[in-house]
């Protein structure tokens, strides 16, 4: 019983009920992806309007927010990710078949790679040396960041959704339309394990920042939590009722946020599996991501205005005053 008591006290250390969301406007169409840089000071947003934007975010939320536009893609910017070692370098993946590397200070594109299909997923290896890109044709490309050239290409015979490295970079995960998580050795990309994770397609994956767990969100509306050393499912989170589109661990690994077409984002305690807070939202969510240093959660979805046009906004939850 002592443990349970301790945990319920722990949950109250973040006063979720008193925290607010702020809205950030700048895109002309809906925002597909939000991501924080490694220092937690900048947030990037990628949009259907063919641009990405970088926002300076004060964690207390004071002051006017400056943003810079990254222009050059000729199709939707579906996903983006920051260099894990460099607070000003960001990579974007677009439907225009290119992957671009940008300097967030100048807003200039420094590198560009032309790939074979419409890119929908992108992730950095934790040491910053490689980038993995997934496209609509279920092809995986690994780029060497320095040369910005592909070093591996592999086409899969099944639907590949989100991709991720573990914290040490020696394992690579693919979530698939078959309800499995494929665990590959890196850099050989040999299969280590196929986890029968869900009864429907696995859409998204998040790695716990402490390196203990990974979580998988599925079309069956469940989020499963896995022990990374034993590849065992520890528990499932059951609050959502629609296919899970996006999940993220907070920086301490204590909480997990998950979202779908339900009109709320769920925040659950990782250890107990209990939901501790729900953030109401007005539309299906595309992307949630916790800040790597503070309990600030960025989120973006299919928000529309009263004329049913895309709003092009994202929000950040976790500010103490409005």
UniProtKB/TrEMBL annotation:
Taxonomic classification: Eukaryota, Viridiplantae, Streptophyta, Embryophyta, Tracheophyta
Keywords: Repeat, WD repeat
Record-linked Gene3D superfamilies: YVTN repeat-like/Quinoprotein amine dehydrogenase (2.130.10.10)
GO biological process, one term: mRNA export from nucleus
CDD domains linked to this entry: WD40
Official protein name in the record: THO complex subunit 3
Organism the protein comes from: Nepenthes gracilis (Slender pitcher plant)
Similarity field: Belongs to the THOC3 family.
InterPro entries for the chain: Tex1/THOC3, WD40/YVTN_repeat-like_dom_sf, WD40_PAC1, WD40_repeat_CS, WD40_repeat_dom_sf, WD40_rpt
GO cellular component, one term: THO complex part of transcription export complex
